[in-house]
Write a structure and sequence with these properties.
The chain has helices at 77-82, 120-128, 172-176, 193-205; strands at 9-20, 23-29, 40-45, 51-55, 64-70, 89-96, 110-115, 134-140, 156-160, 168-169, 186-191, 213-217. The protein folds into two domains: 9-96, Translation factors (Elongation Factor Tu (Ef-tu), domain 3, Beta Barrel), CATH 2.40.30; 105-217, Nucleotide-binding domain of ferredoxin-NADP reductase (FNR) module (Rossmann fold), CATH 3.40.50.80. The chain has a six-stranded antiparallel sheet with strand order 4-3-6-1-2-5. A six-stranded parallel sheet has the order 10-9-8-7-11-12, covered by helices on one side. It is of the alpha/beta class and 219 residues long. The chain is built from four helices and twelve strands, in the order E-E-E-E-E-H-E-E-H-E-E-E-H-E-H-E. Bound molecules: flavin-adenine dinucleotide. Flavin-adenine dinucleotide binds at residues 40, 52-55, 67-70, 72, 74-79, 116-117, 120, 216, 218-219.
């Protein structure tokens, strides 16, 4: 039997916040789409068959959905999403994915690790679960890529690899080598696969069990 597909919705764009030259948060109508924080949705331009996966950036209780999109110059869809304006229409499908915080895991020490736009599911976690105890380590090339870091208060730690500034000069994985990580920690890794493979090995070598390491690979 064919698996039932989740019907796509046409959602009007409500707002676009340009965070840097190449990154925007796109807010659009929710239209009753239910998701669990950490999940992703499929988004494309209305009438265009090309769609891509984007973690939901907004919290579970928001009236709208938001995604944080990094513009890939050679790409097809991300550029168009970054250029959207209020009143445009996107098609949205989903939700999908298992990168979630179960009730049990929420009570453990949490370490959120991201590169670039991989910070998006953590924004949804933090918006959805007030009082969450976590540390967030965010790696970016440039200093101005600390996307809406004020949302995380003192829990945010910025590793900047190509410019002076931030909390650490270098890559996330270099910082992880210096960090003390209790064995009961649940670590979440989101972003590019090079970081995820390297961080996974590092965390395992520190004694974290495989089931305590959760991953979401973007590209
Ligand atoms: C589960 C999941 C969740 C995702 N969530 C997000 C998200 O929240 N925000 C987001 O910006 N992207 C996210 N992505 C990536 C997104 O789906 C697209 O791949 C990305 O936007 C590029 O699409 P495109 O059509 O512009 O480029 P394409 O035409 O599909 O591809 C162009 C090339 O760009 C590479 N690429 C993809 N993403 C990046 C990137 N960020 N930086 C550099 N190169 C890249 C691809 O590997 C490919 O080689 C997610 C991917 C997955 C699998």
């Amino acid at each position: 039997m064919l698996k039932p597909t989740k019907k796509r919705k046409a959602c009007e764009v409500l707002e676009v916040r340009h965070l840097t030259e190449s990154t925007a948060v796109v807010r659009f109508e929710r239209q009753g789409l239910e998701f669990e924080p950490g999940q992703y949705i499929r988004v494309g331009m209305d009438g265009d068959p090309e769609i891509r996966d984007y973690s939901v950036y907004s919290g579970a209780d928001s009236d709208w959905l938001e995604v944080l999109v990094r513009r890939v110059e050679d790409g097809l869809v991300s550029k168009q999403l970054c250029d959207l304006e209020e009143g445009d229409v996107v098609t949205v499908g989903g939700p999908y994915g298992h990168f979630k915080l179960t009730e049990i895991v929420r009570c453990e020490p949490l370490l959120f690790i991201a590169t670039g736009s991989g910070i998006s599911p953590y924004h949804s976690f933090v918006e959805s679960y007030p009082g969450l105890q976590y540390r967030l380590i965010h790696g970016t090339a440039k200093l101005d890529e600390a996307y809406e870091a004020e949302a995380y208060g003192g829990n945010y730690f910025h590793c900047v690899s190509r410019e002076e500034g931030g909390d650490f000069r270098g890559r996330v994985t270099e910082y992880l080598r210096e960090l003390e990580i209790p064995r009961e920690t649940h670590a979440f890794l989101c972003g590019n696969c090079d970081m995820i493979y390297e961080a996974f090995d590092l965390l395992q070598a520190r004694g974290l069990a495989t089931e305590n390491i959760h991953t979401e690979v973007y590209f």
